[in-house]
Fold these 3 entries.
Entry 1:
Amino acid sequence: MRLEYFDMIDRVVSLDRAAGRIEALATVPMASPVFEGHFPGHPLVPGVLLTETMAQASGYLLLARASFSHMPFLMGVDKARFRSFVGPGAVLEVEASLEHDGSGYAVTKAAIRAEGKPLCNAELRFKTMPFPDGLDAPMRERAARIGLLDGAAA
Amino acid sequence: MSDTFDRVATIIADVADIPREKITPESHAIDDLGIDSLAFLDIAFEIDKTFGIKLPLEQWTQEVNEGKVPAEQYFVLKNLCERIDGLVAEKAAKV
């Protein structure tokens, strides 16, 4: 994870496009400017960044399902719960599943665990729209870097 | 249609926090009820789930933007309900 660059997902572990499910890994860095403020001398990953991590896993799932025809933009966070503290070095197991594939929007459920223990979960809503100019290539490059389509089940 | 309208009106009242009595079949979702695009997607999600359909919002938006269909055809609730009934019937015919 590069928290300050909002680059949250390190690697996709599994992707099942037909079933609408993705699993990914993200390792919290040992140091980050984020920890200077949150909190001084007591570094914790902010809940908003855990939400962003769940949103990015969901977003990659939606990108893969739509074969990069549409870009998902987060538009709603429901029922978000943060169950435990997350600090430097934690290896996050991120999962997201498609709850509803609407026309021009999608809903996912996502969760993060560490060592099998639930850390947080939320229901997320996205607006999906044709790629804005210039965003397509960088998103494909990012997806390739995290191995989004490597070994996809379907 | 009236059953569909009742269910849709209840969804709109709950999701957009609009008094149920303000919602009539003649109401325009945007002009009369002031529903914004985010709330409309929340309403669409509830409608999709409740009726087991997929409102073709992208197609509708395109048709309205291209001037092929007046927005009233989709956003006045009695018209929206007619389309929902059509989509439900279409789905039933496929099964």
Entry 2:
Amino acid sequence: MDDKLILGGHEFQSRFILGSGKFSLDIVKAVVENGGAQMVTLALRRANIGGEENILDYIPKDVTLLPNTSGARNAEEALRIARLAREIGCGDFVKVEVIRDSKYLLPDNYETVKATELLAREGFIVLPYMYPDLYTARALVDAGAAAVMPLGAPIGSNKGLCTKEFIRILLDEIDLPIIVDAGIGCPSQACEAMEMGVDAIMCNTAVATANNVALMAKAFKLAIEAGRAAYLAGLGRVLDKGAEASSPLTGFLED
Amino acid sequence: MALHKIDHMTYLDGMEAIDSDIMDKVLEHLREYDYRQYTAQDVQRALVKEQLSIDDYAAVLSPAAMPYLEQMAQRALQETRKHFGNSVHLFTPLYIANYCENLCAYCGFNYKNRIRRGKLSADELEKELQAIAETGLQDILILTGESRRQSGPAYIGEAVKMAAKYFYSVSLEIYPLNIDEYKFLHECGADYVCVYQETYNPDKYDEVHVDGPKRVYPYRFHAQERALMAGMRGVAFGALLGLDDYRKDAFATGLHAYFIQQKYPHAEISFSVPRLRPYINNAGLSPRDVQEKQLLHVMLAYRLFMPFAGITISTRERPRFRDHVIGMVATKISAGVRVGVGGHLVEEKGDEQFEISDPRSVKEIHQMIINRGLQPVYNDYVRV
């Protein structure tokens, strides 16, 4: 079946986007391969271009880079970081991260919309990380986003789909790919999100903090694929109270 | 001749006062903090909470927490991994001057000490910066003694501008400044300010800061807030553990950072943990001494209370201690350190403030981090 993820006109077979910020760099390649990821995020502020431990030296060349704007506290800073990323050859994709809270690292939706508008105007393929709010998501569509990336739970928390009901609303109402970014703690949660109809999963901490990182990447790959297949197959209905008699209320009717 | 002591709670002319209630809040909590009242149950309760309250923090810093260091370490490891993953940041300090106008009883730089004094010329500074940059480092901490006359903001500003040519991140550990001066240094390229209160106990502060502008407790206390008001990205906190009751000083340090973060939620926060070493062969004589066990206790309490904050481990500590705390609780480590003025390429122009216990080079520290299954990170900031 031809089931591709399309972001800004680019096609991807894999629906697993790998975050790279918490890994030892020498295992990034193995994680990418085991996870089958075709897109890897990188924080420009960490890149150390031309210096020691430059992450760009560790990401396989056939992978699409998704530089993020972490460190930006407002739209203008996000724009400048994205321009720098483009200048050093990271391509046109950018994940907008505008964060003004060092404790919870929650995205600032207002500044994120502004950043998305500025970046889209400059031809970037913009994937904004956001708190799942319907109005913001609509504004991001209008601003030219290529997808929206609602958080499942605070970054690094591994708490799973705490915002499930709100992501469901975005799935119903927003006509762009929805990528759950942040909070996914284990493969079953990724699978659950995919079953709901989410288009892709971005994950970092849950893989990076596993005992066997490469194997966990593979587990995520399989879970995401299973969830996607289940979504496409159409889930059977679930009954609240066990079995259902065929016609408990209308069986008295005569044909 | 007896010194005429200025009042340690009164600002001197030229010191900018800001409208802030953070010092009052910290001091009020500090006055009420009686760590002997906490029990093992208080500690156990705190350790299963996702977010520690101020009272939980008080409990995990108490003597009742000492039997729980392993549990605290396990929890700290989880939190550190959650927030920082495998990353361990590398940096080095560069002393550009050691003139000082203060008389602090505990410090090697105090103006009565007959040590070699000096400051780097522009040419010398450039050579030092180049030599450090060649080691691969991207994060530098510029330090001076506390002398506005010999190393004023304009001199420091020139140093920052030059450092910003070679390093992604330039931090400052200098005397406290007014907001416009921090603004000026921020514009020159500095983005992080470290100020250590030494002790949060105003009486002890009065006793050990005998003379000089550093005597003024509130001006120093509010330095981080002024730096943030000036646009700095982050601020570091620390008490010189062992100068007074280390539990109380650690408690106040954590609260100081906590209230600053509440008021300035965008600010990056970090802790440093300098300590006065107990006398050799004196172990156990004073319950206030800060041995490695107590030092680790404080670091773990910081991590549990503010899991997202950076914690820096300095070369004052021996290699074995440093190697074991990175990744578990510390997130930033210095390497290739010289604590005299200059000394990387230029011959040292001034004596050291203290002796270091870990002389390893950047390469050696890098390899150690890799060997521990962690990731050396050279920069974490992009100046835009």
Entry 3:
Amino acid sequence: MRKNGVKMIKIKAKDVDVFYGKKQALYNIGLDIEENQVTALIGPSGCGKSTFLRCLNRMNDVIDICRVKGEILINDFNINDKSCDVVRLREKIGMVFQKPNPFPKTVYENISYGPTIHGMAQSKQEMDEIVETSLKKAALWEEVKDRLHEPGTGLSGGQQQRLCIARAISVRPEVILMDEPCSALDPIATAQIEELIDELKKEHTIIIVTHSMAQAARVSQNTGFFHLGHLIEHGSTDKIFKNPDNTKTQDYITGRFG
Amino acid sequence: MNLILFTFIVLLGFTSYYFGRRKAYTIQSTKKRLTALPQFYGYYLAIWCAIPAFIIFSLWAIFEPTIVKLLVLSDYSNQGYLDDELNLIYEKTKSLSRGQFTGEITPFIEASAEKYLSLRSIAQSSKAVIVLSIIIASVAYAYKRISSNSRTREPVEKFLNAVLFTASLAAILTTVGIVFSLIFQTIDFFKVIPLFDFVFGTHWYPAKAFVRDSSEALDPTMYSDTFGAVPIFAGTFFIALIAMCVAIPIGLMSGIYLAEYASSKVRQYAKPLIEILAGIPTVVYGFFAALTVGPFLKELGTSMGLEVSAESALAAGGVMGIMIIPFISSLSDDVITSVPQSLRDGSYAMGATKSETIKRVIFPAALPGIVGSILLGVSRAIGETMIVVMASGLAANLTFNPLESTSTITAQIVVILIGDQAFGDPKTQAAFALGMSLFLVTLCLNIVALRVVKKYREKYE
């Protein structure tokens, strides 16, 4: 999204290093994420793209041995600062995981979970509205409106993943992180999710980690290529796929390694 | 003698294993492909050694005593002895042959004892000869039969299958046997004591039944108001309730702490330490309750102006609760740990705190398993004996005051069966009736617990 021709930067990562115990997983990552755009992170397995994604909502805090250094500015506020409240941060930065992970609760309760813990609805009616809008935005409403009170785990894989997306957007986050959201889905469900991503970027900034180069090319406007913990190259998806500066990027995209 | 023979057969088994394997290697060295790994050939021969040995040993064990007895007593036939007298003579003969006979030794019995001894030694040596020759014959037959394409793997696998099946069958048959012994005695009991009096009677005083002179005939009216089980059922559930009031909160919270909050280092030490509680013999808990907790509660109560019995339901129940903590803690820790990490991640990513995640996602997901662990704890509490016998008294008071003494089913069974007892006496049979009801209660609890746990298992598949 450009305002007056200037790119609006939502997230700015500076000199980010990540360590798992003594092993360094990310080296000196610097990356700007544009607002209301889809940014794809690509690279071979173990290159650190998911680790970087998990830095953005501090999910790495959950892992005991993980340490993160450097600055990550979201709306010009450093989330690695001690004053950052992780609960507020994660309210603003939603996340969708590789494997659909709906809670073993009803469809309705899955969506109302976030709004409840953040106290976003004052009445049952308000909550109903949030649930309906979230499901509609996740293109799932038509399929589940008659089974809102059945277990979310009973849905199909693709529906479960859209339920997780609906759950993520229920708290109206500014950014949505997606960690290979389609890797456990069939091509039809994948197409539905990709369509959804395109729709969601109107209101949210999206960062998606993906193994599928084709998917990155289809859904993203910007792409970053990771290799062995380094951010090799980043820029507009067009440029990265058609005319990369780095030969490693070229090799990876043309399928010579990875 | 038997031991030597047995060792010899085992050695023979190893030898045949060795020979079987060697033959397989020999076949292999002629560039022929074997149908199974060489050890299967070895096992195959060892089985050919083990099965005949087992069959002959069991046949011998069944028939030898009968045949020897027949032969020994054949000297006394046609002399007009009754069966009972013959049995007595035979018993005398046997104990004389062991040198343990203390009565008057008649020449007849001495002759029989000698005959008995010689028959036994003949039987022993013929057993050794027969077993060894049959084993050698069967192993030799099998050894000849095996060739490069003979099937050895299937018989070996089938044999293993049969052995494992027998083991589980033994466990099941034992259970069935115990249940049947309970059932018959219980039925006898209820022939004398009406079921209604047992289930709804409020007065339990089995000692009364023991006062009667054994020469008197059974008089059912005398047992009225003696075997009313209500007080001890009430006591059982009351003490179990006190125990669970201690065990559930502490066990559950320590389980949650271990699973969710404790660092891996703390967990590594804390979990075994808690599980040590489960390894303490219940009799130790018993005297802890009777000698430490009971008097302490009494003093504490007296200082507050309460009347506390030295043997109180509270002391027994409280200590029993401590005993059950590790079961609930350890099981619920396992259940909580097995909730997939992806659910935790999902909740954290929504901005939930740790306690919110536990309360709203993990606990509901783990609830069936936790309920299962609690039910298992309850069935332990109901079946627990030692603590109650030592700390809660033996008088079956119908009371719900935790400071008074009361008694449980298990403790009453102990009371009934300690000391002299006569079989066929309603007092003794009462123990079986109690055992049966206890069994039914814990059985139901276990079935419910297993069902709940099973339901939980299906959840994430």
